[in-house]
Amino acid sequence: MTLHASIDRVTDRIRERSRDSRGAYLAKIARAAQDGPARAHLSCGNQAHAYAAMDDKADMAETRKPNIGIVTAYNDMLSAHQPYERYPDLIRAAGRAAGATVQVAGGVPAMCDGVTQGRPGMELSLFSRDVIALSAGVALSHDCFDSAMYLGVCDKIVPGLIMAAATFGHIPAVFVPAGPMPSGLPNDEKSKVRQQFATGEVGRDALMAAEMASYHSAGTCTFYGTANTNQMLMEFMGLHLPGSSFVNPNTPLREALTVAAVQRAAAITNLGNEYTPAGHVLDERAFVNGIVGLMATGGSTNLVLHLPAMARAAGVLLDIEDFHDLSEAVPLMARVYPNGLADVNHFHAAGGLGYMLGQLLDAGLLHPDVKTITGGGLDSYVREPKLDGDAIRWEDGARATLNDRILRPAGDPFAATGGLKQLQGNLGRGVIKVSAVAPERRVIEAPVRIFHDQESVKTAFRAGEFTGDTIVVVRFQGPRANGMPELHSLTPTLAVLQDRGLKVALVTDGRMSGASGKVPAAIHIAPEAASGGPLARLRDGDLLRLDAETGRLECLAPDFDDRDPVPFDGGDSQEGLGRELFAAFRAVAGPATEGAGVVV
């Protein structure tokens, strides 16, 4: 199938924009690779330190077996990462069987946004991505590894690990998922109880029971938020094994997939004939494929922030216009909560990523000729894994959807476009996701109420202050102000107002969760208010127009351009719960339109 003209055009634009940076990057990783396995050049003392605690130290000292480094985000605070506790022993045994040695190179932090939503700790969340990249860099700095296996799932963890894998792009990288928890309380029922709690219809005991029934075991949360969007990306970008993203934890198939991932990590080092450096996988085509997957699945808006940072680490420069243009070309093929009632287990059972990849490849909407860890192109990802004894065999995946209420073909999608829009106007640039927003709510012209934190919005709601159509502006929420926290805890409040018949919207230089959906939200507005951006010139009562159809976001006040910005007062957001440790990050963070990066 001929590549779709829009995919071709956007890829060429990214390639041209990135010509110098990508060229310099490829030259850098070529220099890093040219000397072969680095540990061969270590002194005897260096090597003795590196191997002292290994059972396989003789192999390390005397043979040229590949040495695989594990970078793990294990902790048991995150249900998605708890299964990783057992992975190092499994990987060591599988490595020996594959003729390799294995070491845990290091750990990286992994925080749970579900725990920190609406709390001060959320202001560390975005910056944890760059800390993860730094931590993985420290782990790999020992320079003893022929390939690396990255164990991570959730929101900032995979983007941070990709930034590190790209930086160490001469080392092959295999990403290893842990899988989603089994389905619990349906997401729409959970959402209903949250809104009932927001209006006082039910008490905290009912809310707690619903939440515990939703988040009930090891594995990724089952809604299609940032964590599961990350898993989709790794498959679309060729860094997972085919069909491995949404297999439940602690099952025989999950364990066999991990063993198969070790076998690939051992096979693709520069000691053999299938050398596949991570930096060659992570080219502009892979990032375009990832964005196509984001649009086709209705994935998390957080990846609009993370993908530019991930790409920059590989010398690839993305812009939000690339997301907009690809969204216009790619159909929305999936309905998974919050864009529908199904969860990722239902999506996987309906045909999942393999079915989507086949459809998108047939439609010319993906680059097939990319490098992947399989040794083949993207067409190898239309297959699905099956157990054959204790081993894996891959067979052709579903060629027809098994549930067209969840998953549809590219030629008969839920919507003709991916639903992500670029917004521009005198308030700056940002994005809005409309795939779950009713068409009649995508244009709103209303006066604004301005707030400087989430709790003030909830206080105004409880006081009954929202009685007419309103655009809620929560400013000073960008990376330089307070680390750009998610504002997901506002979703039930704004949804209640919308359900009462009001037209409401959110405008912010902060983020919304990947689980947010039906309330129109103009997010990631840049320049941010703390840097003197246009949001800092708004006043209560200004008339704003948010038009997701034309992509305009504008203040209609005639004197708007002549006003002085309100100065930023960080107040209590600058210290407590570790926030004071991140002052240096806030001082240098880039704009949201470029990924809000600190280290890239």
Number of helices: 22
Number of domains: 3
Q: Share of helix among residues?
A: 25-40%
- Biggest sheet, open or closed, and with what strands and sense? 8 strands, mixed
Low confidence ranges: none
| Computed structural class | alpha/beta
Mean pLDDT: 93
The end-to-end span amounts to 36 Å
Q: Beta-sheet strand percentage?
A: 5-15%
How large is the radius of gyration? 24 Å
Instruction: Tell me the total number of β-strands.
Output: 14
Shape annotation: globular
Order of neighbouring strands in the sheet with most strands: 7-8-12-11-10-9-13-14
Describe the model.
This protein is an alpha/beta fold and 600 residues long. Helix content is 36%, strand content 13%. It has helices at 5-17, 19-33, 44-51, 57-62, 87-97, 113-116, 125-140, 157-167, 187-198, 204-214, 226-236, 252-267, 278-281, 284-297, 302-313, 320-329, 344-349, 352-362, 454-462, 479-482, 491-499, 583-588; strands at 67-72, 101-107, 147-151, 173-176, 383-388, 391-396, 420-425, 428-433, 443-451, 470-474, 504-508, 521-526, 543-547, 552-555. The strands form three sheets. Strands 7-8-12-11-10-9-13-14 form an eight-stranded mixed beta sheet. The two termini are 36 Å apart. The relative contact order is 0.11. The model has no long low-confidence stretch (mean pLDDT 93). [4Fe-4S] cluster binds at residues 154, 221. Its cofactor is [4Fe-4S] cluster.
